[in-house]
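U., I forgot to send this yesterday:
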Amino acid sequence: MGKDENLRKIYENQMKPMNYTWNLHLKRHEFYTEPVIRLAGELEKER
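Result:
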């Protein structure tokens, strides 16, 4: 458990549209890293 586990869960959740709002919420957390933020940005553009 820890940072890596959290990131793995976030990456998995990114693939689920229903978690879009949750992804935006996670953006405010420290462990929300640059690659994940970029991925979330891609999802925002598609909407």
